[in-house]
């Protein structure tokens, strides 16, 4: 992967940049680099260009991928004005083949150059990808920074607010001073060739490889969701600075639960010692160490599935792949497939497998009983059959426990796609392991404590929404999966026992929409009949939330990411044949009906057939199950 064709040459003539000055205002002089075909390109080749744009990119950096097509479009739009564009890859880990694939994928027609030894990156002072420089006719740096403000670490805006490179180019071409000459750059550290401390006590083979194998390689390997591989020393060394940064900032490994509450099978947190070892290793230049210390690499199932055995049934989401656009936002997509089941089946293990992990953000699969419609799903409030989220591993249900899927069910795939800079296709699927009913004592269901209505005021930075679900029988809680959208800020579950005592089950103080984590308890939480699962979510609809599509609007319930949801999913196991919650608990409806509070009238107006502001027994019984449940909860509470 790291071979470079021997005949390629590199000439990098130092610039006259002074180390104690900022980049803007400095003059760049003669550099010459080969492209991925071996053809050399010199800055002097573009002497007639009134401006030159130099973009430092990387083939695996997520932001560099997102901005690849954006740079291609900019180059095309300024072609008539004579502006020259150059991309430079200074990453030691990026091969010529990878650079060629990057250019093809993003339809980049201007030269993409290889900076061996990162000499030109050093001359420019470029530290991250993607970093863009705008040079004027005299090759003076007039702008340095991001392409625009749409994408960043942990956020993605619906549209561009500030076209920084385009604005700088327009001002340079007009002979004006650039009004905003520098902007902050977010992205991946350039994988520089670095000197290592030979006698470092922390090495890759002895300390770092075991950490990566245990915590990271599960996702950071070919074919998985992570943007680059960490299965070899060369891979890890090239990304060492980025690894140290994301670990230091707590972005990786992704885990957002407060350790004070609950113990979880899939806890990904690093220990303090592991974090300090990673930091020391990166600071020492990422030394390799003694090959004899290298641990055995982890092994993964070779069946193509994480299931304990080959699936008994596989169902594709549709008959042909779905096309995912290169940029922008994609509405939640729904695909319906026939399960083909002629009899009820009990599921001991299930895996939702994304067809294209590069663009599939998460998937929920629902089972719709024969005769049931999409409206029964209520956007997923009433639970789901199975899910995929990045990093989720398929785990069998505890022995004697299983989910049931009725005969004749249709499977509905709800998929959230996130474009990654190039056009993609996806064919996701679901696989099942079944077990004989005679071996099952407890039925597992996914249900939720959900809060409606949602009315988040403009600018509110900590708006609360609550939801509750009562347990109709003695139950065992297996896992939690809080679900919100782009304004989600925090999520907490607590158990309110029949006597009134409260116990926090899960607290996620910093919810991250990018990671729809399922938190699996190490041991099932046994709770008595009558316990209420109470969930509290908080939302940030202010301009401080960089993911916020529009802080000036009131936000209400809706499937799409620019709307909001409050669903506190949890898996609960009860004795087979028992109800998991109190949806069907008999309840006397007051004579004359139930008055609808003004605050929820807009939501229930469609069900108030006679328009009297109340729901009578007939109208309540006609409600979808989940909405009926909330009406019943309201009657009980009032």
Molecular structure report:
There is one protein chain. By secondary structure, the protein is α+β, with helices and mostly antiparallel strands. 16% of the residues lie in helices and 27% in strands. The strands form ten sheets. An eight-stranded mixed sheet has the order 13-22-16-19-23-32-26-29, with no helix packed on it. It has a five-stranded mixed sheet with strand order 6-5-4-8-9. Helix 7 (240-248) runs antiparallel to helix 8.
Q: How big a fraction of the residues is strand?
A: 25-35%
Q: Give the number of DSSP strands.
A: 34
Mean pLDDT: 88
Order of strands, main sheet, comes to: 13-22-16-19-23-32-26-29
Point out poorly predicted stretches.
Answer: 1-21, 582-587
CATH architecture of the largest domain: Sandwich
Category by helix and strand content: alpha+beta
Radius of gyration: 28 Å
Form type: globular
CATH class of the largest domain: Mainly Beta
Please state the oligomeric state of the protein chains shown: single chain
Keywords:
638 residues; alpha+beta; Glutaredoxin; Jelly Rolls; 4 domains; eight-stranded mixed sheet; five-stranded mixed sheet; 34 strands; 16% helix; globular; disordered N terminus
